[in-house]
Specification:
This protein is 39% helix and 13% strand. The chain is of the alpha+beta class. Strands 1-2 form a two-stranded antiparallel sheet. The chain is flat.
């Protein structure tokens, strides 16, 4: 068993909870369980698939193995995530 309220015992879980609270949940008034689940699901998708991590080429982890190379020309568009709290920029196909 881990001690109660000791953040150093599970640093990875504590860091993710801190990120979810401070980067996402502090900006919303949650109106119920369904609303909370929706916000957290969108945040998890953004965190794991779109947010740049410090990896090879500063690309998201999922893109490293699954996505083909992106086009180098075309118009850049902004995709709003969670009502515009986060933004993802992608290049449209030419």
């Amino acid at each position: 068993k881990t001690p109660v309220k000791n953040p150093s015992c599970n640093i990875y879980a504590e860091r993710w909870i801190w990120s979810a609270k401070h980067e996402c949940l502090n900006y919303f008034t949650v109106l119920g369980n369904h609303h909370l689940e929706y916000i957290l699901e969108e945040y998890v998708n953004y965190y794991n698939r779109l947010r740049p991590h410090q990896s090879v080429g500063n690309k998201p982890i999922d893109i490293l193995n699954t996505m083909p190379l992106r086009a180098s020309d075309g118009e850049i568009e902004r995709v709003d995530i969670i009502g515009g709290l986060f933004h993802h920029y992608q290049r449209n196909a030419a």
